[in-house]
Specification:
- It contains 12 helices and 10 strands.
- With 333 residues, it is an alpha+beta fold.
- The protein folds into 2 domains: 2-89; 109-330, Bira Bifunctional Protein, Domain 2 (BirA Bifunctional Protein, domain 2), CATH 3.30.930.
- It is elongated and about 115 Å long.
- The protein binds phenylalanine.
- Phenylalanine is lined by residues 170, 172, 214, 252, 255, 275-277, 298-300.
- Residues 170, 172, 214, 252, 255, 275-277, 298-300 line the site of phenylalanine.
Length: 333
């Protein structure tokens, strides 16, 4: 049995050393050391040995096993590094080749305006509020002093989905929702950017869908001069400290008094950029605020109008056509 083991060790060693690759090495390992391997089958015959021989042969078998295992490991390491060397030799990387260029997108100019306005208002302690684009007649009109058949509803020709739901015509509906959410608590300081919809024939200056950013403050002692200050700050940040601003009396059913705000553009003259006013007491009352105790102001800006002036764009439709030649010009914005 001893001779058999030693002979196996010799054969196996030879086969291990000769293994041309990792696969054949694995086969040799199974052949000799596996459960059904040659060495194991020799050891099965140990039962027939005498009590003196058994430990001697057992020790020898263990020796043979561990010698072969070590040899296999060493050969495996050699074959692996040879394989890696071969792989490296074949995979020549030319580090001088130019890399793949990754094109990075940019903000749409309307989103850039929204972000800029949001930053300005966050700096003044406002929160950002959002609401649904499919709105109820109740929030879009009724709560804002625009009962059914009110002539001012014509100012905002609407897309109705059902008699009581429509695509919101302004984000003022979000202001109402914000007041109701606050349940009569002050201060309310929100701005609400979002898409709004009005029936209009699309042309260079009109779009049936556009973007508004409205703001609302409700607190005790809120005044028209605070509104004036906030709007001046906004306009100076957006268009430069030197920009001239003018307030004109106007009419909105939900504010009293109401104003429209113009800025002076060197080529285009006075241009209206937003509507604003002191929140009408009955709007406050309807939304759960005591109009004897609290006052508020609100304003609504068209984001497209701002982008058109800031970036000198001649047609509002450019914003929605998503022509990359247009969009790509705003990379640095
Ligand atoms: N909601 C008005 C509009 O869409 C704008 C506005 C908002 C005016 C707040 C005054 C106060 O025309």
């Amino acid at each position: 049995m001893r001779d058999r083991l030693l002979a196996l060790q010799g054969e196996a060693s030879q086969e291990i050393v000769d293994a041309p690759n990792l696969e054949s090495l694995r086969e040799v390992k199974v052949k000799y050391l596996g459960k059904k391997g040659e060495i194991t089958s020799v050891l099965r015959g140990m039962g027939s040995l005498s009590a003196e021989e058994r430990p001697v042969i057992g020790a020898l078998a263990n020796d043979v096993r561990s010698t072969l295992s070590t040899l296999i490991e060493e050969t495996e390491a050699k074959l692996e590094s040879a394989k890696m060397a071969e792989k490296l030799a074949n995979e020549n990387v030319d580090v001088t080749l130019p890399g793949k260029s990754i094109s990075i997108g940019s903000l749409h100019p309307i989103n850039a305006v929204i972000e800029e306005v949001e930053d300005i208002f966050i700096g003044m302690g406002f929160h950002i509020a959002e609401g649904p684009e499919v709105e109820t007649d109740y929030f879009n009109f009724e709560m804002l002093n625009l009962p059914k058949n009110h002539p001012a509803r014509d100012m905002q020709d609407s897309f109705y989905i059902s008699p009581e739901t429509l695509l919101r015509t302004h984000t003022s509906a979000v202001q109402v929702r914000s007041m109701i959410d606050k349940k009569g608590e002050v201060p309310v300081r929100v701005i609400s950017p979002g898409k709004v919809y009005r029936r209009d024939d699309d042309d260079a200056t009109h779009s049936h869908q556009f973007t508004q950013i409205e703001g609302l403050v409700v607190d005790s002692g809120v005044s028209m001069s605070e509104l004036h200050g906030v709007l001046l700050h906004l306009i100076h940040k957006l268009f430069g400290e030197e920009t001239e601003v003018r307030l004109r009396p106007s009419y909105f059913p939900f504010t009293e008094p109401s104003v429209e705000v113009d800025i002076f553009h060197p080529e285009k003259g006075w241009i209206e950029i937003l509507g604003a006013g002191m929140v009408h007491p009955s709007v406050l009352e309807k939304a759960g605020y005591d109009a004897e105790k609290y006052t508020g102001f609100a304003f609504g800006i068209g984001a497209e109008r701002i982008a058109i002036l800031k970036y000198d764009i001649d047609d509002i439709r450019h914003f929605y056509q998503n022509d990359l030649r247009f969009i790509k010009q705003f990379k640095s914005v």
